[in-house]
Fold:
Amino acid sequence: MSATRECRREGSTDRGTVVRSGGFSLVAESHPMRRRLQFMARYSLADKTVLVTGAAGGIGGASARALSARGANLVLVGRNSSSVAALARELGEERALPLAMDVTDPAAMEEAVGGAVDRFGRLDVVFANAGIAPERPATLATMDAEVFERIVEVNVLGVWRTVRASLPQIIANHTRPVDRSAA
Ligand SMILES: NC(=O)c1ccc[n+]([C@@H]2O[C@H](COP(=O)([O-])OP(=O)(O)OC[C@H]3O[C@@H](n4cnc5c(N)ncnc54)[C@H](OP(=O)(O)O)[C@@H]3O)[C@@H](O)[C@H]2O)c1
Structure:
């Protein structure tokens, strides 16, 4: 599926030629996203703290590993305590704090940010990545109301509660939230 997406992104667009580099699709020269990507590649993560929700999942786990390799301290939030604990052991427990928490719980998100500050002294970046999708493809007409509302609870309100709890640290440290939800 991701290969298909990458193929679709290759080729010419009205903003320049899309090229692939190291597994990522980059837009050449004229696209504003190029400057953003160049900035991100130069942004030093040494001694910075990043909170990743859904850290035990596919994108969250890969991101946590990449961020750790660039020197970041990680706060790994997920519902499954053994999964986030295993990832923390893999990354090195002195630089990774696993927290079993649900992003839909505002008090838990406040606690996660407090945990980041207690352990690492600061929080610089929050990656609000935790999310769910229906088990089978569905439309508004065919999806159960409960399933739809749970998706909104996690993918919209969970992101809002994660970012909201983090904002005082993010603003104080002049950094930023990242929303990777499907909502
Ligand atoms: N993969 C894609 O093609 C794609 C495309 C568009 C958007 N996205 C979005 O990108 C994000 C990550 O996708 P992914 O493919 O890495 O999904 P994934 O492998 O299913 O990982 C999602 C993670 O979020 C966690 N999570 C779910 N609900 C949570 C909650 N209430 N509190 C805390 N953690 C929770 C899950 O933990 P549990 O194991 O405990 O459930 C899981 O570890 C999701 O928001 C997804 O909707 C993905």
